[in-house]
Predict the 3D structure of the following.
Amino acid sequence: MSENLGEGGIVVVGGGFAGLWAALLACREIDAAGGGAAVTLVSKDEHLTLRPRLYEAEPERFRTPLRPILEPVGARFVHAAAAGLDLPGRRVELDGAAGALGFDRLVLATGSVLAPPPVIGLEFAFDIDTWAGAVRLDRHLAQVLAEPAAPGRDTVVVVGAGFAGIELAAELRGRIAARAGAARGRAARALLLDRALAVGPELGAKPRPVIEAALAEAGVDVRLGATVEAIDAGGLTLAGGERIAARTVVLSTGLRASPLAEALPVALDRLGRVPVDEMLRVPGLDGVFAAGDVARAVVDTAGHCALMSCQHAMTMGRYAGHNAARDLIGLPPEPYRQERYVTCLDLGAAGAVFTRGWDREVEKTGAEAKQYKRIINGEIIYPPSGDRAAILAAATLVPQHHRRPPETRTAG
């Protein structure tokens, strides 16, 4: 029988954007009610990974420790992986000999994982889905660029022309030039592959001309309607037999909800996400909430569903923590709503493209949009810091940048 590490209170499982903000909002609500209930965040990683920045060079920079954010507000941090959920016993089972955590209210915020394609040789591929994966890719590029000339040495293939794949592809030549010189950067080959017949199909048609022009300017060879059959140390093979020599193949093939979602006795959607009601409660499971990439939530009165994105995870986490705490202390919850929806896609040297609304109306491009992207990557996605008062002041239900649109500010 596993050791029980604590009973009662709110347990948040997952240390990503949704989990961190859920813990902070829960602490704020409990503090406002006079305290008395514990808040615990359990995560297999002691750091928050700034996942939206992992397409950039030097990814070692893009994580921040969780304890200095949680401990000032009285949240307990447990460094362990959640291995399962005992819902009748109201316990989170931890991996190995770590024991178990009892809960009164549970917030599942374990995020998502890369959904690899069904191809041979996945062990030869790289990714930017995790901090460790992005660091591995960056170090591999440095090593390969130092090797003697050989077929495919300076070729990088990105498989998946979605949001992250486009951002990575657009800056590849610049990354190669920074390490190996401008001439190597110009001569290198950056190839973006996708089975779809359009670049960034989930981004809609309106920003596509801007994206296509930026990729052309960046010297990215785009191949659509292409299916990868196998990957090896020297390249990849497409369906039909075409061989592409490449020392570096990066997968950016979409996401799937954390496998821990399968521990809940509910029907999951096609991405493996847990259904939640407007309060972010899991229907039929008393005291269980879900937020972030692991949850399928309606964001507005038009019926749009949250995407697997930092933008939705941060706000959804706030509502889940807020509502879990209020449910525990006997106060009414607040319906989750996130009417504001924008996208800002980094396009390397060509700047960026900023869209607003679910129809993705293009509002800004080039250097103007790039300035906004810098604010997002350099300010908005970073967690609060400082003393207890400063951190709790930042833990508002509506994010600060929703009250003061960042596109009206300038990056410092």
